[in-house]
Write a structure and sequence with these properties.
The structure holds two protein chains of two kinds. Chain A has one domain (6-361): Orthogonal Bundle (Cytochrome-c3 Hydrogenase, chain B). Chain A is 48% helix and 14% strand. Chain A contains 13 helices and eight strands. In chain A, α4 runs antiparallel to α12 (346-352) and α5 (124-145) packs antiparallel against α6. The mean pLDDT of chain A is 85. In chain B, α2 (24-33) crosses α5. Classes of the chains: A alpha+beta, B alpha/beta. Chains A and B meet through α1 and α5 of A and β1, α2 and α3 of B.
Chain lengths: 362, 145
């Protein structure tokens, strides 16, 4: 009997599937993956330290650049944690506006991911179609905030800009259109024979494993755990009748379905928020320096739960800012999913947790 | 060599590398490929393999760990090659310029031909940057664009 030869295949740091640098050292026996070792640190910049060196109002711009895809929610979360440190409450209209922009960025992130998933299968025209829809949401962002990607729309004490009635009308039209087109395209993607062949039963994460490993976001909800930070009802989510989306199977297909359904749900949340948004001020003045105190805030990002901790010391600079991001929680799950799969399935399974390396390493 | 020089200008293949960017510029680079901006009309195709590439598009500031990877990739691209630094971080370090793990802009490690500023750089600006790089290449090789 011949001996089975083990080979180590490096996956990354530069790989067509991942726009970001992470390296997975994949040990294979023939085509079967037996072991995976991640090597992270390619994207580490030292943002938490930079946040201690800069004034607290400037940190908004640094925190938004932790990740360019979920930048809006990072900015909102930083402002929210500083507001909690000060013990101030922002006006209700600002809360609604933050929800609207957060949900828009969730739609853009999920559509981006669905496009990348299609690209990983080689369905290039499907990738193009999803990104075509995504451009519409970016138009709505640009219309309301002035920027396509990093909006910088939250400030400490509220938001920087208002959405007037004309912009609101345009946004509602865009969101309805996006919802309709995503529904149509989603049916095509999820009923496709090749997509099912490459995702159903691949990269299974059981409910117990998901809980033990402390997964977050769609990776957790794809494994039949109804856990979503928006259930806390922060910002205006408590008034919007939010229900988490859960799938039972725990495979790559289930995670894709969660994200597709969440895209449609976010469209509904935006429409509902627009129908309920109260009139009034959009920001309040916050004076002075952060007091010597601590505050925490948890928010739901497109990829899962983000945790912000801030400690003030009475000066312009923060004593400590700690950010825990969802992909960091999901990488251990990846190491459980990969062993036993074929080498050719690795890109799709890696994508199925929607890794965001710049979030992870900061 | 005439036909090779001419065709290289008409169909440059780009390779994208993310140093330690926030993703903002990366998704804008990808957005260039999609129907609204469609850089394929210039014959530009995104490649995963440095040995197939003519233009290296780099996003993000260089950190201590990616510097070696970036140099490696640059060395693997066959001559003649062009480097386009996309985004403020790739140009100078941007908001991360004083972070402890950041060395600075891409030009600290490899020579850069075109700088595209912006945070995040807009797809129009990125397309403009790549076309500028091609004009430079055409001039170097004495080919009409």
């Amino acid at each position: 009997m011949s001996k089975v030869v083990r080979t180590v295949a490096p996956f990354g740091p530069q790989h067509p599937v991942l726009p970001e640098p992470i390296q997975l050292k994949i040990t294979c026996e023939d085509e079967k993956v037996v072991d995976v070792v991640p090597a992270i640190g390619y994207c580490h910049r030292g943002i938490e330290k930079a946040c201690e060196l800069n004034d607290f109002p400037k940190n908004i711009y640094i925190c938004e650049r932790i990740c360019g895809i979920c930048s809006c929610i990072h900015g909102c979360s930083y402002c929210e944690v500083i507001e909690r440190l000060f013990g101030v409450e922002i006006p209700p209209r600002a809360k609604y506006l933050r929800v609207i922009w957060s949900e828009m960025s969730r739609i853009h992130s999920h559509l981006l991911w669905l496009g990348l998933l299609a690209d990983a299968f080689g369905l290039e025209s499907m990738f193009m179609q999803f990104w075509r829809i995504r451009e519409k949401i970016l138009d709505a962002m640009e219309l309301t905030t002035g920027q396509r990607v990093t909006q910088s729309v939250s400030i400490i004490g509220g938001v920087r800009r208002d959405i007037d009635s004309e912009q609101q009308k345009k946004c509602i039209d865009i969101v309805r259109e996006v919802k309709k087109e995503t529904e149509e395209l989603g049916k095509v993607l999820m009923n496709d024979y090749t997509v099912k062949a490459r995702t159903v039963g691949k990269g299974i994460l059981t409910r117990e494993q998901a809980i033990t490993l402390g997964c977050a976001g769609p990776t957790l909800r794809g494994s039949d755990v109804a856990e979503d930070c928006r259930m806390q009802g922060y910002q205006a989510y408590g008034e919007l009748g939010f229900e988490p989306i859960v799938e039972k199977d725990g495979d790559s297909y289930a995670r894709a379905v969660v994200r597709l359904r969440e895209t449609l749900q976010s469209c509904d949340l935006i429409l509902e928020a627009f129908s309920k948004i109260p009139e009034g001020e959009i920001s309040i003045k916050v004076k002075g320096n952060p007091p010597a105190n601590e505050a925490v805030f948890r928010a739901e990002q497109p990829r899962g739960e983000v945790f912000y901790y801030a400690k003030g010391n009475g000066t312009r600079n923060l004593e400590r800012l700690k950010v825990r991001t969802p992909t960091f929680a999901n990488i251990p799950a990846l190491l459980v999913m990969l062993p036993g799969c074929e080498l050719a399935d690795v890109p799709v399974i890696v994508l199925s947790i929607d890794p965001c390396i710049s979030c992870t390493e900061r | 060599m005439g036909i090779i020089h001419t065709s290289r200008i008409k169909s440059p293949w780009i390779m994208h590398f993310d140093n330690s960017s926030c993703n903002g510029c990366d998704i804008e680079v990808l957005a260039c490929l999609t129907p609204l901006y469609d850089i394929e009309r210039f014959g530009i195709v995104n490649m995963g393999n440095p040995k197939h590439a003519d233009v290296l598009v780099v996003t993000g500031a260089v950190n201590r760990r990616t510097a070696r990877v970036l140099k490696n990739l640059y060395d693997q691209i066959p001559d003649p090659k062009m480097v386009v630094a996309v985004g403020t971080c790739a140009c100078s370090g941007g908001v991360f310029h004083n972070c402890y793990n950041i060395l600075g802009g891409v030009d600290k490690v490899i020579p850069v031909d075109v700088y595209v500023p912006g945070c995040a750089a807009r797809p129009e600006a990125i397309i403009d940057g790549v076309v500028l790089a091609l004009q430079k290449l055409a001039k170097l090789q004495g080919v009409a664009i």
